User: Fold these one by one.
Assistant:
Number 1:
Amino acid sequence: MYWKVQKIGPEQLVKQYGVHLLLGVSILLNGFLFLTMPKGNKMSSETKGNIEGFVRNVTMHLLDSSYINCEKNSVELRKELAPNILAGMVQRKDLPGNDTELMALIRDMSERKQICAVRIDRVATGDPDARGLVPVEVQGVFAFHSSQDTGENPFRFQYMIGQHSETKAYLIADFRDLTPQQAPAE
C-alpha cells in the first residue's frame, strides 16, 4: 500500500480551513475589545472632552454679562438648560423671562457699558450615576467692569449633564451654585 501524496493549493486550504481562520480572528478581535472596554459605567475620554467643552460653553453663557454678548448668551442658554432649570432661573430673575425683559437688560448694560471676563480654572467630570446623568464641577473667576461698578468674584458650579431625548444634544439637567458666600463688608 502506497500512500497517495496530494498537492494542496491555497484554494483548497481556504475551502477546508477558512472558517477556522475567521473564527480565530474573530475570537482575537473580541478578546481585544473586551480587554479595552471601559469598566462599569465609565465614559471614554472623547465623551469626557465633549462634555467638558459643553460645560465650559454653558458657564461662559451663564456668567458673561457683557452687553455685547447678552442676547446671544440668553438664546443659547434656552437650548442648553432643561425646562425646569430654565424656569427656576427665570423665576429667580437670573435670566430674562421674555424678549421685553431681555431688551431692557441689554439697554441697561449698554448704558453702563458693562463687560465681563470669565476664567475657568478647573473642570472635574465624574462618572454617570444610576440615572445616566454625569456630574461636572466647574470652578473659576469672573471679573466685570462697568461705568458704575468693578469687581471680581470666584464661582463654583455643579452641573448634572444629560442628553435631550430626541436630539441627543447635551443638556443641563440639574444645576447647583456651590460658590462660598462672602460675608458682607461692615
Number 2:
Amino acid sequence: MDRILALINQARDLDWMQTIQNPYVIAAIVVLLALSFWRKAYAAVAVIIVVVAFIPLSYYTLPKGEEEIDVAKVAIFAGGSAILGGILIYFGFVKGK
C-alpha cells in the first residue's frame, strides 16, 4: 500500500508538460502512432491522441496548488473533456470493427 501511495504522490508531483516535451517521450508517441496506423488500429490511435491532448488541457485549465477555481477555465476543461470523450466514443464504438 505504501508503494501505491508513493507512486500516486510521484505522479502528482511530476511536471507533465515537461514530460511530454521530452524528445524520448515524443519519439515513443510517434512510434506508437505509426505502429497503430500500420496495423489499422484506429481506436488505439484515438486513445493515444486523447491522452496526449488531455495533458495540456488539464495543465492550462485546472488550478495549481491553492489557486481559486475559475468558472471560465472549468467550462473550458469540461468542454474540452467532452470533445475528447466524443472522439473516444466515435472511434471506439461508431467506427470500431
Number 3:
Amino acid sequence: MNNTQKLMAAVAAVFIAGFLMVGSNKEESNQSKEAAAMIRAVAAMQTMATSKCPTAIKAATGDQVYFSTSTDTDKQTYVSMTWDAAKTDDKYSFKKAECTLHLTLGGISKLVIDDKVIINKEVKY
C-alpha cells in the first residue's frame, strides 16, 4: 500500500467512525420525548381553537372573526380566546365573545357571546 491509499483509508475510517458516533447518539431520552409530546399537544390545541372557535362564533352571530383580542391558556389542558369589539377596529354585531376549548373534550367546552351562554359542556379531568 502506498501513502495515498493509506491516506484514503484513514479518511474513510474517520468518516465511518463519525457516522457511527452520530448514529449511536440519535436515541432520545424520555424527558426529551415528553417535552416534544407536550409541545405537539399545545400546538394541536391552539390550532384546534383557532379553527373551531371562529366557526362557532360565525354560526351563532353571522360575524366572521379573525384574530382574538386576548388568549389565555395553561399550556396543558385548555385555551380560552376572547374577541372584544371595543378593543378592535373590526365591526361585530356582538360586544364580546369568549370561547374556551379543552383538550380533554377535543372541542369547545364553553362559548359565551354578550353574556349569553351558547355552549357549556362539563369538563372531566
